[in-house]
Amino acid sequence: MVGCELRLAGVRVTIIERRTEINRVIRAFGLTVPTVEAFYRRGLLPDLIQARWTHVRRSVESLAKYPHPSPPDALPSIGAVGHFAGIMIPRDSVDHDDPDFLERGPAGEMMPISQQMVEEILTRRASAIGVDLRRGVAVETFEEQEDGVDVRLSNGERLRCGWLVGCDGGRSTVRRLSGFPFLGTNPEITGWQAIVDFENPEVLQPGWNRTDTGIYVFTPLTRRILIVEMDGPPEDRRSDVTREELQAALRRVSKTDITITSVDSATRFTDHARQASTYVKGRIILAGDAAHVHPPFGGQGLNLGIGDAMNLGWKLAATVQGWAPCGLLDSYTRERHPIGASVLDWARAQIALMRLDPLTESLRRIVSDLLCTADGATYAAKKLSGVVQKYDMPGEHRLVGRSAPDVRVGDQLRLADLMHRGQAVLIGPPELGKRAADWHPRLVHAESPDGPAMLVRPDGYVAWASDDQDDSTGLDEALHTWLGDPGL
Ligand SMILES: Cc1cc2nc3c(=O)[nH]c(=O)nc-3n(C[C@H](O)[C@H](O)[C@H](O)COP(=O)(O)OP(=O)(O)OC[C@H]3O[C@@H](n4cnc5c(N)ncnc54)[C@H](O)[C@@H]3O)c2cc1C
Fold first, then answer.
1. Residue 480 · residue 318 · CB < 8 Å
2. What does the alpha-carbon distance between residue 475 and residue 477 come to, in Å, rounded to a whole number?
3. Of 40, 68, 377, 470, which is least surrounded by CB within 10 A?
4. Which CATH class is domain 408-483?
């Protein structure tokens, strides 16, 4: 996503990827609203919808091959918007008229799509727009110079680049070699997620289950199993997960004689939670898991990475192209670090609530009651879907720092349609457009019959807004703050 955003802005990009092909191991499943919005704003919503239907079709085929005595609609998760530490958040209790859920346009819903499908869409996109994607070769070392970075690859090749963005995952080589402080908490649990076949699935209970030895989640529809044991991290975190290891853990936790006959895909995880204290150090930048790791509960890791990429892409492009206003690149850490920190909190709090002692059971009952209230369910649904995200940006208007409402533009279009090329958008009357004409082509202007006048940054966040479309107080300052000097 970082590569695509940079290329879209006209920057030459090379992606170095150690893997020869997309990682097929089961990981993320589900896009939050800011991620769906990001794809929508780049014209990729049809690809997401297509991927979603492919998933539905595969699930139905899988169900036909793999009937389970408990029908999937008996799952407690149906009728829930999600969960917090396994406590379901009832859909009926959520206030869907809350202003944060409104004005989102066609990208206003979370989408159940696998990480592989997201990576396939982005790979196609990268090739289509001319990103140089090199697979099967790794970054081994690099040296930062005053005017660039010299990178040495595993095949002995040397590359010279202006900037190096480490999107190389939780065990990031780029982060380690650059000495970014990576602060946080140590792991207490071992978790597994897998797609498996069973000999006797009827002994398992569908949905979330807590026993006195751990937690397991069984989803018959997708043959997915998630297991958590709370007695420390695994001794070996790098070896492949075996059928025997999964079966033994599931037997310990479910207290059944469950037998796993085959494993399609499996991964092991912990609740290791750490975050780089800054995301930019000289010409080295971190994004995604390289900048933050946390347990997967809450389904946020991939989404956090896409959000980093959207925030970083245009700012780094502006820096490379020489028109970035003072402090633009620094605003990447300032805006994204708090979002990452709140995701770490959300994930850590769930681990605390998953503990198996009687005190935690009492706490769970209280939290469960709170999550069933309208305020509690709405709060949790907003956190899960990401609609509460707000950047600390200068400006008083309620929209500043928030994802822009997808207002109508002209007869047929919406704001997102104007953002496919990654430009900023100024919405307002023609006089406003004239005031900002010098910033073209960094910015495009359009009129809208809806809502306030707005300056929307290339990442879709509102930089300035005025309820009175004729009042442009503060617009010039916002244009200079985010789009620099029009003469550059
Ligand atoms: C069990 C599980 C469930 C999850 N569920 C969810 C979920 O529901 N929702 C969600 O949003 N997130 C979820 N996540 C998290 C999500 O998978 C990660 O946050 C996401 O993969 C991070 O993307 P990334 O690109 O930053 O890092 P990665 O996906 O780790 O990609 C890093 C890439 O860098 C490459 N690389 C590494 N080192 C080098 C090098 N030196 N040179 C070249 N290439 C290199 C790797 O091969 C890899 O392809 C889950 C994770 C797990 C483990």
1. no
2. 5
3. 470
4. alpha beta
The domain defined by 2-67+110-185+273-354 folds into FAD/NAD(P)-binding domain (3.50.50)
- Supply the residue whose CA is at minimum distance from atom 39 of ligand 1: 168
Report yes or no on whether pTM surpasses 0.70: yes
Question: CATH for 190-269?
Answer: 3.30.70.2450
* Per-residue CA distances from 311 to 34, 90, 405, 435, 482 (Å): 11, 32, 17, 26, 12
Hey, which of 17, 27, 39, 173 would you mutate to test ligand 1's pocket, going by the most ligand atoms within 8 Å of its Cβ? 27
Tokens of 82: 């999600």
Distance from the first to the final alpha carbon of the chain: 27
Give residue limits of the domains in the chain.
Answer: 2-67+110-185+273-354, 190-269, 408-483
Ligand 1 contact, 310 CB (< 6 A): no
- Measured from the Cα of 138, ligand 1's closest atom is 42
Provide the H-helix boundaries in 324-373. 330-354, 358-371
Answer whether 104's CB lies under 8 Å from 406's CB.
yes
Q: Which residue has the tokens 């680049």?
A: 161
Measured in whole angstroms, how far is the alpha carbon of residue 248 from the centre of its chain? 32
Ligand 1 atom with the shortest distance to the CA of 191: 1
Residue nearest to atom 37 of ligand 1 (CA): 168
What is the CA(406)–ligand 1 centre distance, in A? 30
Position in ligand 1 atom list of the atom nearest CA 23 = 49
